Amino acid sequence: MTDDAIGPDNSLLIVDDDGPFIRRLAKAMEARGFAVESAESVNEGINRARARPPQYALVDLRLGDGNGLDVIAAIRQNKADARVIVLTGYGNIATAVNAVKLGAEDYLAKPADADEIYAALVRSPGDKVEPPENPMSADRVRWEHIQRVYEMCERNVSETARRLNMHRRTLQRILAKRAPK
């Protein structure tokens, strides 16, 4: 079963190093009509892109063994008309520009839900993106960033505080509180 918005080639490659996230997203995308393959590393993503080039791809930028931009390049080499969406928790303008130059159609910041991802995958090239109805508050964005850095530092409070240029005790107080809305 395929959705009319997807088209006859419904192959989707998801490349992310977060296993539980991939499994949840794969189920959600299969329910929407995609034939999903997944990869948890740059090397695995490149190999899958070469073996069976997907029509659609969702690629995380920062993976354990390298940069997701290498996977995008491999997809573009093997299927020039593939629709590639970049998904990352480390969004900044420079990486967004670089991803688009390499052929990404869109750039989504984590956390993105299955509906947002599906909409980005099937959006026509000229369609404009609607602004979010409930954007995250500045406090929530700050909290999300702190959580990402904390996880990246393997939950080491001292290293996280150093990277965020904040006092360790201040960071501990922030981590002890609930997430803002």
TrEMBL record:
Sorted alphabetically, the keyword list is:
DNA-binding, Phosphoprotein, Transcription, Transcription regulation, Two-component regulatory system
4-aspartylphosphate: modified positions: 60
Organism superkingdom: Bacteria
The question of whether DNA-binding is a record keyword is answered with yes
| The UniProt record lists the keyword DNA-binding | yes
Q: Which residues form the Response regulatory domain?
A: 11-125
Q: Tell me the protein's name.
A: Two-component system response regulator RegA
